[in-house]
Amino acid sequence: MSQATVTIHTTFLPHTDPEASLAFYRDGLGFELRLDVGEGTMRWLTVGPANQPDTAFVLTPAGMGDYTDEEKAVITAMMAKGTYATVILASTDLDATFSQLKESGATVLQEIADEGWGTRDCVFRDPAGNTVRIQQAA
Question: Residue 26 burial by CB count (10 A; 0-12/13-18/19+): exposed, middle or buried?
Fold first, then answer.
């Protein structure tokens, strides 16, 4: 029996403001908008890097799903603290990516730094509070 190949296809990240999230991921990071479903704040936005058509984030309205009011309150509180979701990206030009995101008005959590474990990276918070760490690609 041959070994199957498994790839990363799609992951979900919550948003609290679809337009602000779209500005961060499309305008700040340069991702392409692939799908925009719904209206108002109840929109599901699929975004991803143009050079990786089979990899995407679906930005979903926060707290959607079969959650109790108490669970929704916990999710909202964790998002506000930046502890609900983290994404790690890689850039072939970290300095340019950092400048582009910073100039777009994104919240910087950490300037570019050489980490003790050998990675050069920076950290932002997206408009919903998700932590976005970006590493220099090898």
Answer: middle
**Spatial separation of the C-alpha atoms in residues 87 and 115, rounded to whole Å:** 17
Q: Are the C-beta atoms of 103 and 97 separated by less than 8 Å? A: no
> Each residue of 102-131: pLDDT tens digit?
999 999 999 999 999 899 999 999 999 999
- pTM as predicted: 0.89
User: Is the separation of the CB atoms in 94 and 121 below 8 Å?
Assistant: yes
Q: Which CATH class is domain 10-136?
A: alpha beta
> In 3-state terms, what secondary structure has residue 105?
coil
At 49-66, the pLDDT tens digits run 999 999 999 999 987 888
